[in-house]
Structures are given as C-alpha cells and as structure tokens.
C-alpha cells in the first residue's frame, strides 16, 4: 500500500463532500433523481458482487438477479404484514445474504466441474425457476402472494430512525430517499473495500488464476472446484444483500422485478466497465444506470417532436443499448472501457 | 543407493482407440534427475498428465514419498509435493510475473476470504511472506527484473523460467518439466541446464521430458524411454544410448 | 379419457419440437464447442415471421387451403432465420473464435437481447394469436385424441430428422461437418473449409429452428417475443440430456423431455395433493373436506421439469445419454 500524498487527501475529501452533498442537491432538482441515484448505487453494489464471479473468477453467471430476488423476498417475508413478522435489518440482511449464498452454492456445485457454458445456461434457467416459484407459491399455502407480490414492506430502520419519512436535521430536510442514499453509500463503500482487498489476496489471485487458465491453476495446487464455488456463493450473497435493500426501499416486491433482463443489465455493466477492475465496474454501472435515465428524458420528447408519436419506448431502447454494449465491448474492447491493469499497479509499487 | 521417491506401477491410459500408455512402471529416486524421452506421440506428456491428476488413468498406481498418491485431484498431487510445467507453456497471462509465482504459494498457505476482507494480522503476515518468497524465486530463476510485467508480455525463455518459478513456489519434492528447452537457443539452453543442475544441488528431484538428446544425456542420472506408450528402456544414459531398441524406436519413428 | 395416453401424445408433439430446436444447439456445439445462446430467439423470430405472413395471407381473403397458408409462413420464416443464423455466426462467434471462451458467450447473450427487443419493436409487446385456420380435426386413438396439428407436427419433425441425418451422413458436405466436429485441424488438413462448415451449421440449425418456431406457434396458437427464451432453455436441456454434440442424442433428448414434461404436468398435481398423503391428509382434513384437494405443485410448475432434468443430467451423467466423455486436452 502506498502512502497517500496531501494532494490525494485533498482529492479524496472533495469526492467525499460531493458524495455526501449529492442527495441534497438532487432533492432540489427533484426527488426522482435521488431515487435514480439510489438505484445507480444499488447497481454499483450488484455489479461489484457480480464482478467477483464474472470479472475475477471468469464464471458467467446469468441468473444473478435470482439471488437478488432471494434477498428481496427474504426481507419482504420477514418484515411485512404478510406473515406479520417485523424482524430488524441486522437479522434479515445477513440472512438474505446467507440464503442467497446457499442457493448459489447448491446451483453452482453440479456445474462448476463442467465447462463454463453449462454454468451460464443453468444460472439462466435458475432465474426463470425462481420466478416460477415466486409466481406460484401462493397456493395452496400463501407464501409469496403470487404475481400480486408483497406490499407494505417495512423500510430500513436503525437507531430509531425511520428511513421512509422526511426528517429535519440542522435545518436541512432529509427525505426518505435521501436517507436511503446514505445507507446505500455505506454499503457501497463496504463492497468496494471487499472487492479491493480480495483482489490482492490469496483467494482473489486464485480466482484470477482460474479465469486465466483453469488447468494451470489446478496444477499449481488450487482446488478449483471449491474456489469457484466460493466465488459463486460470495457473488450470490452480495446479490442477496442488494435484494434486501431493494425490498426495503421500494416497500413492495413482485416477481416482475426479477426478470432476466435485470441480470443482463448487471452483466453489461461489469463487461462494459472492465471485468475484474473495480473502478471500471463502478464506472460501467454508473454509466449504464444514468444513460438510460437520461434517454428517458430526451428520447421520448424527441420522438414525439419528430414523428409525432413514440416509435421506440425508452425501455426497449435501454435493452437494445445493453445488448449492443455486450456485443460491441467484446468485439472491440474485450477488457472493457477501463481494463484491469494488474501490472501497472505492481510497477507503481516498485517505484514508490 | 538413494531412497525411492516415486514409484509408478503399471500405468495405463487410453484415448478411444489410442493406447497412449501401456503398463508403464518406473522408479525415481530422491535427488536424481530422471529423464523421460521418446519419439513424438510416445506418451510422455500423457504420463505427466496422469501423474499430476489432470487425466484419469485406466490402470496402475503411484507411490510417492512412501505413501499412495491420490491421482484423482490435481491439487492434492500438488500438495503431496509434485509440481510441473507444461509443454506448451501455461501461464496466467494477464497476471504479473510476480503474481504468477504468488499463485504457486496457494497450496502452502491458508488465508481465507474473511482474513482478506478484515486484513487480519495473520493474513497480512502471510501475504508478506508469500510476496517475499515469490520475489526470491523470481530472483532464483533470474527474471526478477520482470516481476511487474504481465506474464504474456515476457519473452519466451523468460516464460519458461517463470513457469518453473511458479512450480517451485509449491515447494515440490519432485519437479516435472515437460520439454523446458523446446524452442530455446543454445545460450538459453545452457542457462536452463545450469538452473536444473542448481535445483538438484539444492536437493530437489527432477523428472525431465526432453527431446534435446545432448541435454538429456548430459544432465540426467537415469533415463527411461517410451515408445508407443510402452517403456522400452530404463537405465543410465550411457547404456540407454546404446540400446538397440531405443535406436530402432528413434530411427524407425519420426525424428526424435 | 385415457390421461396417460393423452399425455404421451401431447408429450410426443412438444418433444418433437424440442428435438428440432435441440438439433440446432447440438450441431453448433458439435463443431465449435460453444452454446449458441441466441438460438431460442431465432426460433421465436421464425414463429413471428410466419405469423405475419399467415395473417397477411388470411387477410387477402384468397381461397387458399389452410395447409398452403401455413406453408407460406414456413417458406418465409426459413430464409429469414437462416439469414439471422448466418449473421449470428459472423457477428457474435467468428470474430471471437480465438478469444477467451467467455467472450463469444457474452456476445451471444447480447445478440439474443438485441433480437428479442427488435422483435418487440416489430411485433409488439403483446402475444400474437395465430388465426385458427386449420380446422382442428381430432382422431380418437384408444381413449385419447390426437389432433391433425399434432399429427402434422410429429410427421414433419420425423421427416426433418431423417433429412438431416441423411444430409450429415450421406452427403459430402455432411461428411465435412462431421470431420470438423471430430477435429477442426485435421479436417482443415483434408481440405475442409472450417469457416464454411461452421457458418453452415448455424444456418442449418436456424432453418430447423424456423420450422420449429412455426410448429410451436401453430400448436399453441400464440407467439410472443419472449417465447424463445424458455423454449431455447428446454431445447438446450434436451440436447444435454441426449448428449450435446450428438445428433441422435438431441432427437432422443427432445422426445424424452417432451414426455417427461407432459407426464410430469399430468401427474404432479395428483402426486403432490396433500389430501392423498397420510399425515398431511389428517392435518388438513378440514381443507380437504372443503376443497377436495390441497395441491402443493400443480401443472403451473410444468416449466420446472426441463430444468430439473438438466440439473440431474449434469450431476449424474454430464455426457448425456448418448454422448461420450471427452477429456479436455491438458
Ligand atoms: N486429450 C487427448 N485426447 C486424445 N488423444 C490424446 C490426448 N492427449 C494425448 N493423446 C494422444 O496420445 C498419444 C500420446 O501423446 P503425448 O502427448 O503423451 O505424446 P508425447 O510423447 O508427449 O509427444 P510429443 O513429444 O510430441 O510431445 C498421442 O497419440 C496423442 O495424440
Ligand atoms: Mg509431449
């Protein structure tokens, strides 16, 4: 670890202040934008979770959103009037992570000794299976409430603060979404630290080694099956945590929120940003979170103005962009817009 | 006579119709350099792959360091103390040279996910030790100046050395090298020879596949010859060299 | 009515469709050892194109026999899908043939998302209902019924399977395909143009997929821009069940999967009816008396079977029923 210079500290402080002030500024523009920022952070979180699986270990997980669903439903069922349970976040969030991680391990176990394509297709299928269960586990016993979903889910609450209402502190009004912003920010910092630390650890190196050459990794003494399973379960548990936060923030979950396209979106963020590179993934997630929102506000009026009607819905355009991002990145910049640079870091350290 | 380190008994391996290994038995003694030669397609690499657990075997067993060797899982073979290099170099291309060697320490270290996330004292100490050892090994094979470069950017000869360093990082008792001199020029080959002799001097046992007859004959204490999956000779180089069966295999088959 | 026989007939019908789609996966996998993730979308587009053509033909009000109208749909769908299959290979696979394995999988996923949403743009978000032009005559077979559409699907599928088998085993080009599947390098040495062969497997697979799409659409009377996803997943499971890369395996796997699914859907409700179970029956006596049964998993779980089959095969016999184990070269 190199020591930070004063200039760095100053830069960091600026970033920190900007991040802290952002929701207050956005609130002025419109609370909708705070929500958008929250979802962007949630996607950063999800992307960094998936980065462990896809970016570091090179395992193509296409059902990531299913683990998100596991986390979301864990929260929804344990903190809502549905079963009249209202457990606190510190109990549900880890439980959601655990359940999602277990689901990941169970799913990964049969496929991880096979070629990567099988994992991809099994995870793809799993996403669909989870949705079928969410949709149908309302009869004969009502567990998930079916397609109607679960409503009136408890928000996040800690230290007597209710995160769903507006509070005023030092004369500044903090709306519900603004408060969630700070919780998500903390979680995001956490996942960034986890990613960075894992990247340069014994396990992280084993993941990258497997991605680079599985046979050589085996011969070098890595128990590839267990190490892959670990990556897979870890990624899944991050999905579980994000899902829990999603449920808390929305106050409502239904199977519709967990479709395949969401998995593809997260994958596109990781791929576009740069598989394996934490900062690249973050940038990819932010970019692909904001661009569609931006389009939503521009493309629709533009089409109305030019054609007099809506030709391409923003939703469709968004998915087309994600698809194109996957294809074009792989074709022209397979390492992503901000590639992982393992050697540069080493060189910098040597000079320092 | 030195003690036996590895004893392979009746190893057999088929690929569909091809009988790549037929009842191959051989004995390697601690501290020696043991050559494995034979014409192209004789089954040398296949023997390595079976020995290191990458291929399942159809028959036979291996005793290593006094106990049976679990051939099912490559990582257990590595843990038992067998490390290898590959004929067609297999490095972790997008990792630095140093990191490649650090990966080799995996099997001798233990830090887990939690240790890494929390940066526990034990984890940091272990990580520092891994790095130190990896740097030492890079120096040992003579490519320390390339530590920070991506493996795929190294010159061919350096890649071969890096692969050896990675193998050494697993603290093997037996180092198996699959044609380490292939594609090297005379100078590089001479340097490699020095490196391997140094390894023996440091007490390591080496199993060497090599086509360069001069290198094998000069370096090895004993040599086994494979032909069409069968061991046709095993002895000190001087005797093997004059064995009519060996001469026949090399002249009858493709050029060795 | 004989439920068992009926479900077998239904299973054979959907199974034939799965088999035809599975052939597309297996052929591509055979030559390049990659899953063509976008194959399901090709099938969907086949159904959609046929739908449009059939609607147009019906709309013209010509006195054409229904058979000719559907044939028109097929004849339009096949070339469109072949073009898409070819395009897929050129865009998503060929440029990445020497890239890490992850790369073509990711582009293929991207292509499949793009195709799906282009279809959405063209055909809309709502399911499109095929016009009921085939008078659905059904024939009684030993206590069950088989409809003319079912007969047509099964016959057509068998014909296509036979045709493909003939093509692959009896023609020069078919032999080139098999040689490439065996070993690309050796095939190249024997003068086989690998690029042509690979492109051909994509296009042939797509042509089969197009027909499968039309069959599926006419059978269920509906086409939707997302239908390719689950259909593709099932067909892939079928291919793995039979042994991926193996033509006969894909056919067998498809039929078996169709049967498993139909029989599963037919009986799972009865089997998981808690009222028929000793302990639960007593626990739930009141509800059982009121509703007659308390079904844990009904036929709405039908889509789960393919997935279960896939997982079970991967756990117990990853090489599939007819596939052989090949070691990865170290
Ligand atoms: N994974 C495999 N699948 C099928 N056949 C194989 C496989 N690996 C090796 N073979 C075959 O087994 C035989 C022995 O091959 P092997 O690579 O062990 O020879 P070798 O002695 O190392 O030759 P070379 O000197 O050329 O490296 C050859 O006929 C080869 O084609
Ligand atoms: Mg060899």
Task: Give structural notes.
The complex is a heterotrimer of chains A (352), B (256) and C (330). Chain A has helices at residues 6-29, 31-56, 64-78, 89-111, 116-136, 176-199, 202-212, 214-219, 224-250, 260-273, 278-307, 314-332, 342-351; strands spanning 79-80, 85-86, 157-158, 161-162, 167-169, 172-174. Chain A is mainly alpha-helical and 352 residues long. Chain A has a domain at 30-275. In chain A, strands 1-2 form a two-stranded antiparallel ribbon. A two-stranded antiparallel ribbon of chain A has the order 3-4. A two-stranded antiparallel sheet of chain A has the order 5-6. In chain A, 53% of the residues are buried. Chain B has helices at 44-51, 74-80, 97-104, 113-118, 121-141, 156-169, 186-201, 213-219, 237-242, 244-252; strands spanning 4-15, 18-29, 33-37, 59-64, 67-68, 82-84, 174-178, 205-209, 222-227, 230-235. In chain B, strands 6-7-8-3-9-10 form a six-stranded mixed β-sheet, with helices on both faces. Chain B is globular. With 330 residues, chain C is mainly alpha-helical. Chain C has a single domain (2-254), classed as Orthogonal Bundle (ABC transporter involved in vitamin B12 uptake, BtuC). Chains in contact: A-B, A-C, B-C. Residues 44-45, 87 of chain B line the site of magnesium ion.
């Amino acid at each position: 670890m190199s020591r930070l210079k004063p200039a760095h500290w100053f830069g960091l402080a600026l970033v920190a202040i900007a991040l802290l002030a952002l929701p207050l500024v956005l609130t002025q523009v419109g609370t909708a934008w705070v929500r958008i920022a929250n979802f962007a952070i949630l996607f950063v979180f999800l992307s960094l979770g998936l980065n462990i699986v896809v970016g570091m270990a090179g395992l193509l997980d296409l059902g990531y959103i299913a683990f998100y669903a596991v986390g979301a439903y864990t929260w929804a069922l344990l903190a809502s009037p549905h079963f009249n349970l209202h457990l606190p976040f510190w109990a549900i969030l880890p439980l959601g992570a655990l359940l999602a991680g277990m689901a990941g391990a169970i799913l990964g176990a049969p496929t991880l000794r096979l070629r990567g394509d099988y994992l991809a297709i099994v995870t793809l299928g799993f996403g669909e299976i989870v949705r079928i269960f969410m949709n149908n586990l309302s009869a004969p016993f009502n567990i998930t409430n079916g397609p109607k979903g679960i409503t009136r889910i408890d928000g996040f609450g800690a230290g007597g603060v209710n995160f769903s209402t507006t509070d005023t502190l030092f004369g500044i009004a903090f709306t519900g979404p603004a408060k969630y912003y700070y919780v998500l920010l903390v979680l995001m910092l956490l996942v960034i630290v986890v990613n960075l630390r894992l990247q340069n650890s014994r396990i992280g190196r084993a993941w990258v080694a497997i991605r680079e050459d599985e046979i050589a990794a085996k011969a070098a003494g890595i128990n590839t099956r267990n190490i892959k399973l670990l990556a897979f379960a870890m990624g899944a548990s991050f999905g579980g945590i994000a899902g829990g936060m999603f449920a808390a923030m929305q106050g409502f979950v239904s199977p519709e929120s967990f479709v395949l396209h969401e998995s593809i979106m997260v994958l596109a963020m990781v791929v576009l940003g740069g598989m394996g590179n934490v900062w690249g993934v973050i940038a990819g997630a932010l970019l692909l979170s904001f661009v569609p929102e931006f389009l939503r506000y521009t493309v629709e009026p533009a089409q109305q103005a030019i054609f007099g009607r809506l030709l391409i819905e923003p939703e469709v355009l968004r998915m087309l962009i994600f698809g194109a991002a996957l294809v074009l990145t792989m074709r022209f910049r397979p390492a992503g817009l901000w590639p992982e640079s393992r050697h540069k870091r080493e060189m910098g350290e040597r000079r320092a | 006579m030195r003690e036996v380190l590895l004893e392979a008994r009746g190893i057999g391996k088929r690929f569909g119709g091809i009988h790549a290994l037929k009842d191959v038995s051989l004995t390697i003694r601690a501290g020696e350099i043991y050559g494995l030669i034979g014409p192209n397609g004789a089954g040398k690499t296949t023997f390595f792959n079976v020995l290191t657990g990458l291929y399942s075997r159809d028959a036979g067993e291996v005793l290593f360091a006094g106990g049976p060797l679990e051939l099912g899982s490559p990582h257990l073979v590595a843990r038992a103390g067998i490390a290898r290099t590959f004929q067609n170099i297999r490095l972790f291309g997008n990792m630095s040279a140093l990191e490649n060697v650090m990966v080799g320490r995996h099997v001798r270290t233990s830090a887990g996910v939690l240790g890494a996330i929390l940066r526990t004292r034990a984890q940091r100490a272990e990580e520092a030790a891994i790095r130190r050892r990896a740097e030492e090994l890079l120096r040992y094979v003579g490519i320390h100046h390339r530590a920070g470069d991506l493996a795929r950017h190294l010159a061919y000869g350096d890649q071969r050395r890096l692969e050896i360093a990675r193998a050494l990082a697993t603290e093997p008792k037996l180092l198996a090298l699959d044609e380490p001199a292939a594609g090297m020029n005379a100078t590089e080959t001479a340097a490699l020879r020095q490196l391997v002799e140094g390894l023996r001097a440091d007490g390591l046992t080496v199993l060497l596949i090599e086509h360069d007859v001069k290198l094998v004959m000069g370096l090895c204490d004993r040599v086994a010859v494979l032909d069409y999956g069968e061991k046709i000779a095993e002895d000190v180089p001087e005797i093997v060299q004059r064995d009519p069966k060996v001469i026949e295999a090399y002249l009858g088959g493709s050029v060795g | 009515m004989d439920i068992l026989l009926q479900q077998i007939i239904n299973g054979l019908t959907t199974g034939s469709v799965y088999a035809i789609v599975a052939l597309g996966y297996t052929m591509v996998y055979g030559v390049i050892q990659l899953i063509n993730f976008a194959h399901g979308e090709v099938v969907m587009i086949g159904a959609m194109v046929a739908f449009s053509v059939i609607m147009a033909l019906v709309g013209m009000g010509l006195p054409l026999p229904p058979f000719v109208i559907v044939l028109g749909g097929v004849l339009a769908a096949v070339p469109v899908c072949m073009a898409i299959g070819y395009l897929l290979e050129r865009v998503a696979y060929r440029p990445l043939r020497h890239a890490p394995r992850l790369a073509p999988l990711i582009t293929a996923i991207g292509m499949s998302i793009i195709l799906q949403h282009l279809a959405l743009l063209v055909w809309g978000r709502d399911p499109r209902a095929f016009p009921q032009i085939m008078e659905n005559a059904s024939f009684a077979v030993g206590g069950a019924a088989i409809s003319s559409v079912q007969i047509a699907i099964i016959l057509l599928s068998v014909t296509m399977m036979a045709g493909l088998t003939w093509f692959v085993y009896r023609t020069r080009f078919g032999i080139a395909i098999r040689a490439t599947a065996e070993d690309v390098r050796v095939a190249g040495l024997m003068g086989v143009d690998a690029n042509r062969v690979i492109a051909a497997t994509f296009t042939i697979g797509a042509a089969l997929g197009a027909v499968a799409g039309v069959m599926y659409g006419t059978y269920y009377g509906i086409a939707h821009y997302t239908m390719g996803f689950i259909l593709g997943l099932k067909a892939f499971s079928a291919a793995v069940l039979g042994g991926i890369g193996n033509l006969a395996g894909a056919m067998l796997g498809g039929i078996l999967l169709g049967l498993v699914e139909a029989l599963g859907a037919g009986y799972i409700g009865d089997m998981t009816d808690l009222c028929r179970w000793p302990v639960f029956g007593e626990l739930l006596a009141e509800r059982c008396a009121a509703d007659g049964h308390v079904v844990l998993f009904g036929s709405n779980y039908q889509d789960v079977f393919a997935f279960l089959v896939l997982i079970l095969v991967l756990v117990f016999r990853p090489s599939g029923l007819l596939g052989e184990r090949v070691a990865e070269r170290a």
